[in-house]
């Protein structure tokens, strides 16, 4: 009798779990349309939320690719890579696309960023904890990370700050 009861409970739990994640293409399509509208308005976080909702109703790996692309729009390559690495599919075309997108993001993350520095009034001296000093206005290629910077200009109080370089 216990075995029957345990099997019944396991079967009921499986049916309940299936009902909670049931495919609903109509709801997925509505969520996807909402995601497209949010993207068009530049609200990328909302677009990600709607894409996740669509994925819940219709687990299509291309929805995950679109989520990753919205993270790129937010200049958040780390989360884009995380999302792409979650993609599981037997579709060779999608696997190839995901592999190419990962490689592209990793390549962008390894390139230094050109950062422009300007002050008002110009002519301030920026001294970095890593690298040579720079006079403003000026430009510098910087890799991602944190830099301690001091800003000095005759007649003004010297300032120190931490500059964080992120994104792509």
Q: Count of helices?
A: 6
Using the CA coordinates, give the radius of gyration. Answer: 25 Å
Mean pLDDT: 87
Give the overall shape: elongated
* Terminal CA distance: 62 Å
The low-pLDDT segments are 14-19
One letter per element, helices H and strands E, the order comes to HHHHHHEEEEEE
Structural class per helix/strand content? alpha+beta
Helix content: 40-55%
Q: Give the number of DSSP strands.
A: 6
Provide the spatial order of strands within the biggest beta sheet.
Answer: 3-2-5-6
Main beta sheet strand tally, sense and closure:
4 strands, antiparallel
Strand content: 15-25%
Structure write-up:
By secondary structure, the protein is of the alpha+beta class. Helix content is 54%, strand content 18%. The strands form two sheets. It has a four-stranded antiparallel β-sheet, with no helix packed on it. Strand 2 and strand 3 form a beta hairpin. It is elongated. The relative contact order is 0.08.
What is the topological layout?
Blueprint: H1 2-20, H2 25-40, H3 44-57, H4 61-73, H5 77-85, H6 92-110, E1 113-117, E2 125-128, E3 134-135, E4 138-142, E5 145-152, E6 159-165
Antiparallel strand pairs: 1-4, 2-3, 2-5, 5-6
Helix pairs in contact: 2-3, 3-4, 4-5, 5-6
């Amino acid at each position: 009798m216990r075995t029957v009861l345990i099997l019944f409970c396991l079967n009921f739990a499986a049916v309940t779990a299936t009902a909670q994640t049931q495919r609903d293409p109509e709801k997925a399509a509505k969520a996807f349309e909402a995601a497209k509208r949010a993207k068009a308005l530049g609200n990328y976080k909302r677009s990600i939320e709607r894409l996740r909702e669509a994925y819940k109703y219709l687990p299509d790996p291309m929805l995950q690719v679109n989520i990753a692309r919205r993270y790129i729009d937010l200049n958040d390559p780390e989360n884009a890579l995380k999302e792409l690495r979650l993609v599981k599919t037997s579709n060779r075309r999608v696997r190839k696309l995901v592999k190419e997108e990962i490689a592209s993001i990793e390549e962008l993350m390894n390139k230094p960023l050109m950062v422009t520095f300007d002050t008002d009034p110009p002519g301030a001296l920026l001294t970095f904890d890593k690298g040579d000093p720079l006079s403003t206005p000026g430009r510098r290629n910087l890799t991602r990370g944190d830099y301690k910077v001091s800003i000095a200009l005759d007649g003004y109080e010297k300032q120190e700050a931490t500059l964080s370089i992120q994104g792509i």
